[in-house]
User: Which sequence fits this backbone?
């Protein structure tokens, strides 16, 4: 099972947008500099977040804004917004040997279990909020600031 980096980049986008609120305009260039990736990737993910109703994007002097409080944006909201291959977390190997007793029965033995795992995964994503991440980041920044004063 693997979730692409789109998910963590999208969380990063939301966290930095919140952090910069009132300090500086949030642009794809600022985001890509913080994330360490190409601005095109950031713009594509911003489009997905906008389509999902999680952010607004205003060209020119506007920048990015978050559309609702971070304690109302779950990890599942973000996952659903940016992951394009979420129908199945698990990819099955192709071309099993039908002459092999395991090969011809592996799908039947695994499919329902993998579907149940995916349901649990998505249910667990509902338990976490972007605000949880932002609070941890702010705590770390405050700790860094205190450490640098000593």
Assistant:
């Amino acid at each position: 099972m693997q979730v692409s980096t789109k998910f963590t980049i999208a969380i990063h986008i939301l966290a930095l947008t919140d952090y910069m609120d009132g300090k500086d305009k949030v642009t794809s260039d600022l985001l890509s500099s913080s994330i360490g990736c190409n601005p095109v990737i950031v713009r594509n993910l911003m489009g997905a977040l906008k389509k999902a109703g999680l952010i607004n994007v205003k060209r020119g002097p506007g920048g990015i804004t978050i559309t609702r409080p971070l304690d109302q944006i779950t990890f599942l909201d973000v996952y659903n917004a940016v992951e394009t291959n979420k129908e199945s977390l698990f990819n099955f190997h192709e071309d099993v040997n039908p002459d092999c007793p395991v090969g011809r029965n592996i799908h039947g033995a695994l499919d329902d279990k993998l579907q149940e795992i995916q349901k649990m995964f998505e249910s667990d994503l509902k338990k976490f909020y972007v605000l949880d991440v932002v609070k941890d980041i702010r705590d770390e920044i405050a700790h860094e600031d205190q450490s640098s004063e000593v």
Q: What stands out?
A: The chain has a mean pLDDT of 90. The chain is about 60% helix and 5% strand. Residues 5-148 form a domain with the Arc Repressor Mutant, subunit A fold (CATH 1.10.10.10).
